[in-house]
Amino acid sequence: MGNQGTDTGVPEGIGTDVSDAADVSDAVHEPAASGDPGSVGQQGTAAPTAGGETIPRQRRPLLDAVHPVRAVTAFHRRHHPVTLVAIAATTLAYAALAYHRRWIADDGMIAVRTVRQILAGHGPVYSPYERAETDTSTLWTLLLTIGGGVTGVDVARVAVLTGLLCAVGGVVSALFATARLHARLSAKPRRPLLPAGALLLLGVSPFWDFATSGLETGLEILWLGLCWLALVAWCAETPDTKRQYLVALLIGLAPLVRPEFALMEAVFAVAAWLLIRPGKRRTLLLFVTAQAFPLITEIFRAGYYGELVPLPALAKSADGSQWNRGWRYVEETLKGYFVWIPLAILLAAAIAHLMNKSALKSRTTTILLATPVTAGLLLGLYVVKVGGDFMHARMVLPVLFLLVLPVLVVPVTAVLVPAVTATAVWAAYCGSTYSVHFYDQKHAIAEDERVGYQQWTGRPNPETSAAYTNRERGIGEAIASWTAHGQHVLTSEGGIDVPLDPSLPFPFAVAAGRLGAAGAETPLRDEVVDTLGLANPLGAHLTVTTPGRPGHEKELPWAWILADYGDPAVVDTQEVLKGVSPQQVAAARHAMGCGALKELLDSTRQPMTFGRFWSNLAGAASRTALVVPADPFAAEKKFCR
């Protein structure tokens, strides 16, 4: 097997050829440390290069890096020309479709404002006077910050292009990983391969839509593709010491991609360990390597924001269960594009193809085949449990990608060619019609966000901040007018204007449910009051007020907004908004000054000092678990008794 000291990187019972010996990624195992038998290697082995000379195996990675022609030649030798053409055609088609459908969602604009605040020197916040973590993906925010800082262009455009590059990079990585997997399964490692599971990327239009969208879906695809490549090309073939630590570092990034990807981290980490089989000391060091960045990030999050998870996880009740709604969410994707057809075809063909393969007796190959399928089923179960998402198909995409990783490309055989043909017909039909047997939008469990924002912005490709600021121009114009007249105002998307509390350190506050659009138009110095809890610590901890839509079930009552931001001389003495009494406002304000609720607000609004950081860190667990009654009178009773 690929993890034994006498292994050459070829599976049991399978032959090899000179192209494998010349491949760039065939690095030598390093000498085993004491008590670490999984790292024994072949220091004396020599291998022929493309030019025919014999080079010591331990020197080849460096020499290949110096001689790119040799690296390209070795790369070409490993893969059949048909395989290379198939991979290139699939990748280019996917990239073209994703670019054609480029856009940025309102939720993508949320990350854009956070990055703009970072670049302006205000820190990773949405509004400068309240530390709220609005972005689910820490790594995505980091990538956009680097991209925006280096290029100096509109961060929204950076988000669109970065997502596209990540998605395409993930697809390319996964395609080559699967090609190498099938080389393990074949007595002819260089036999031609055709796209199979990869056709799902061309047949299911949400794969195109969310390659951009300003969200982290492209990053998810990249991480999954790289992890798959690392397992197949590194862990299963040449697990030398340096590569082991790189794999551990890569897999450990999972919760920084998305918090629920910690489930994927566990699956990929177990698979990598089984393939490498390090000793106890190496296992401990690899574990520490994997957890280093997530641990540092978690300490910063707890100390800076005072929470153990980003606010969207609290606002969306990510620890809750909505099994029925979650299944309906997944079902809409499976039925909406007849995805069950290619999945059934490819599963049946793969089983028939593998039945007579002696490679299945290999422990290494079994692990490789089982890992992405297990990860996909586990992630799918999580998606069903939490009730899916309010965006159509978005959370199902990484599940589908994982399930088809072992069959992204398949060999040309009598069994598999008909399956590829049938899948290609399905992809051509679905891809050309964008959606077949699509759900009725009026009765759908989730929304087609791209279509919605095309209509709302009036642009076929709403991919810039201007697409949103032009639509929200009323907020900017009103703020400019109030500034000219020296007025400080609490306003909203719905046209509610109330005098702002004069004690607040900013001149304007904008209450909005469409957080990204409002944030694009509101100056960075001013407060954006999120009415759905994604950027509002109080709103994220509320009890559910509008059940039925994940991510939007905790709508912040106006009594709390007026108590927090309205001028007490006005909102405490008269009913400024129909249905919101001065008594409700007074109760809300009183509750915010009591007990654990006061501490919650202090953790985000008091100046950041070492003492505040330590207090936030120490109380992060209890603060994360805090539940605030949406009714101001109930909250007053709970916190001020």
TrEMBL record:
Low complexity bias spans: 44-54
Region described as Disordered: 24-61
Keywords from the named record: Membrane, Transmembrane, Transmembrane helix
Transmembrane segments: 82-99, 158-181, 193-211, 217-236, 337-355, 367-384, 396-429
Claim: Endoplasmic reticulum is one of the keywords in the record: no
InterPro entries documented for this protein: AftB_C (IPR058983)
Domain Terminal beta-(1->2)-arabinofuranosyltransferase C-terminal residue range list: 507-620
Domain of life: Bacteria
Name under which the protein is recorded: Terminal beta-(1->2)-arabinofuranosyltransferase C-terminal domain-containing protein
